[in-house]
């Protein structure tokens, strides 16, 4: 009986060992199959070549456009507005008459001043002859000369007031605002018109002092305005203030803009870039290829359908591109989309090259 039990036990043990061995072999086969599947996993990515081109560094800021030349015209004499010769939007030339004030009173005063001057001139000439003949005293002669010269000045002032009844533009430009109407009584120094010259248009920037060493007169500037989307305007740095405002820590920089189409207007809001350096024929890649971690920047480089991570050193950024100073060679391919799914030596399928 004991011998039978021992036989059964040995038979059961042998069967169990065979079963465990079979299970183990099946497990190894499944693991090998999984490993094979992992090794053949392919990640789709988009990629671009390392290219060469020109890239610029710039300082960017916002500003409201201003006219370089603008004048508020005031009346130099008192009177009633008799005639308005130009309206808002009209072009005017320097010295052009743009309005008239009633001049009857000023004309009469001028004529009276001239008549008085002529009489005093005759008296002066007669006294001069008498003085040369020593028939009158020097005091009488000098008084007559003084009276004549004083009245001459009064006549010049009266004539000038008469001329001022014709209001003239001091600059060439466009009538941007009118303040008077026909029949208005206006006083001396009262505003009558605003004239604006749109050529050139300028932008005044207040730039932080730490940027001062970068900005130079004559540097190229680029402008985009909200009112004219998609249109790029160019210009140059015209003036740079040599002092720093102690209250704001900024220095004033004036940019003149080139507007051949005459579509920029004072008051427009714009974004300005001042280009302070340009590197020519330098290596560039799309900015979205960069992976930034702390102070390290890297990219995935594709070689033989495998992606390898590589640390690089970058330079200027301009638009959608970034300059590569170290770490990449011409013609290499970098991943631009899909980096988050990659690790070193991952097999990839490029779908956007």
Describe this structure in words.
- The chain is α+β, with helices and mostly antiparallel strands and 353 residues long.
- Among the domains are: 43-57 and 280-350, conserved putative lor/sdh protein from methanococcus maripaludis s2 fold (Beta Barrel), CATH 2.40.420.20; 59-66 and 198-277, Beta Barrel (Elongation Factor Tu (Ef-tu), domain 3); 106-164, Helix hairpin bin (Helix Hairpins, Orthogonal Bundle), CATH 1.10.287.
- The protein has three helices and 19 strands.
- The strands form two sheets. The chain has a 15-stranded mixed beta sheet that branches.
- Strand 16 and strand 17 form a beta hairpin.
- Helix 2 runs antiparallel to helix 3.
Topology of this structure?
Blueprint: H1 2-39, E1 43-49, E2 51-74, E3 79-84, E4 91-92, E5 97-101, H2 104-132, H3 138-164, E6 166-168, E7 173-178, E8 185-186, E9 191-208, E10 220-225, E11 233-240, E12 250-258, E13 269-286, E14 291-293, E15 296-303, E16 306-318, E17 321-326, E18 333-337, E19 346-350
Parallel strand pairs: 1-19
Antiparallel strand pairs: 1-18, 2-9, 2-13, 3-5, 3-8, 4-7, 5-6, 7-9, 9-12, 10-11, 10-13, 11-12, 13-17, 14-15, 15-16, 15-18, 16-17, 16-19
Helix pairs in contact: 2-3
């Amino acid at each position: 009986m004991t011998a039978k039990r021992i036989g059964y036990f040995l038979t059961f043990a042998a069967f169990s060992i065979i079963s465990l061995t079979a299970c183990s072999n099946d497990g190894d086969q499944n693991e090998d199959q999984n490993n094979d599947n992992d090794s053949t996993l392919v990640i789709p990515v988009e990629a671009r070549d390392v290219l060469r081109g020109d890239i610029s560094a710039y300082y960017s800021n916002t500003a409201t456009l201003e006219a370089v030349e603008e004048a508020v015209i005031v009346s130099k004499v008192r009177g009633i507005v008799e005639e308005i010769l130009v309206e808002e939007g009209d072009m005017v030339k320097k010295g052009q008459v743009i309005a008239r004030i009633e001049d009857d009173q000023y004309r009469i005063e001028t004529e009276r001043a001239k008549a008085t001057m002529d009489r005093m001139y005759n008296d002066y000439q007669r006294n001069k002859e008498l003085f040369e003949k020593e028939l009158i005293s020097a005091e009488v002669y000098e008084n007559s000369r003084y009276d004549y010269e004083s009245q001459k000045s009064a006549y010049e002032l009266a004539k000038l007031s008469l001329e001022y009844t014709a209001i003239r533009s001091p600059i060439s430009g466009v009538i941007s605002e009118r303040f008077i109407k026909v029949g208005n009584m206006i006083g001396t120094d009262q505003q009558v018109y605003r004239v604006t010259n749109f050529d050139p248009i300028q932008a005044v920037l207040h730039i932080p002092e730490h940027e001062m060493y970068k900005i130079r007169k004559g540097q190229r500037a680029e402008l985009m305005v909200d009112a004219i989307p998609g249109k790029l305007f160019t210009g140059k740095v015209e003036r740079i203030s040599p002092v720093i405002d102690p209250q704001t820590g900024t220095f004033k920089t004036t940019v003149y803009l080139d507007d051949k189409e005459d579509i920029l207007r004072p008051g427009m809001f714009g974004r300005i870039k001042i280009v302070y350096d340009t590197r020519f024929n330098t290596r560039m890649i799309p900015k979205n290829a960069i992976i930034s971690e702390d102070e390290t920047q890297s990219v995935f480089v594709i070689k033989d359908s495998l992606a390898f991570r590589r640390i690089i050193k970058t330079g200027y950024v301009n638009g959608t591109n970034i300059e590569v100073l170290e770490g990449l060679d011409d013609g290499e391919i970098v991943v631009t989309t899909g980096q988050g799914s990659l690790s070193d030596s991952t097999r990839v399928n490029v779908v956007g090259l």
